[in-house]
Amino acid sequence: MADLNDDEILRLYLDEKLDGEDMAKVEKRLRQEPGLLERLDQIRTEQIDPAVHSVGMAWISGRLTCPARSEWTRHFSGVLEKTRSEYLNFHLEVVECPFCQANATDLRQRESRRKDSSSSMADRSARAAGWLKSD
Q1: What is the mean pLDDT of residues 99-120?
Q2: pLDDT at residue 125, rounded to an integer
Q3: Dist. CA 114–CA 48, nearest whole Å
Q4: Has residue 89 got a pLDDT over 90?
Q5: Region class of 96: left (phi > 0), else alpha (psi between -120 and 50), else beta
Q6: Cβ distance 18 to 27 under 8 Å?
Q7: What pTM was estimated for this model as a whole?
Q8: Spatial contact of 133 and 127, defined as CB atoms under 8 Å apart
Q9: Residue 97 pLDDT > 60, yes or no?
Q10: Which of 33, 64, 95 represents a domain boundary (last residue)?
Q11: What domain range is 9 assigned to?
Q12: Is 44 strand, coil or helix?
């Protein structure tokens, strides 16, 4: 892929002719380089039949590879099967999906607040029972 120019890479991307790792690299560059995203749109509109949409574009725009929020919760709780959990890590760390990164950040923050709240409630209960001395 290194010897190809951006237009060739974008055409291969649109035609779904790149391997998974290269697709992820292109997706990352598209998020980081607004000019490249504009060029992708130009190439897409230059296609012979603009009414034709690739499965890959529908897949990306519909975020079909993005796990559901409930699956992220199971992942962070450590109850998701190993191979699926590995995919979720790949989705966050290699693909760097901004939607799922935001979801993951939110779930982690909620879990942290829940733990803080549970700890505080346990301390109040222990004080009320006389197990801990008040400050």
Answers
A1: 82
A2: 67
A3: 54
A4: yes
A5: left
A6: no
A7: 0.47
A8: yes
A9: yes
A10: 64
A11: 1-64
A12: helix
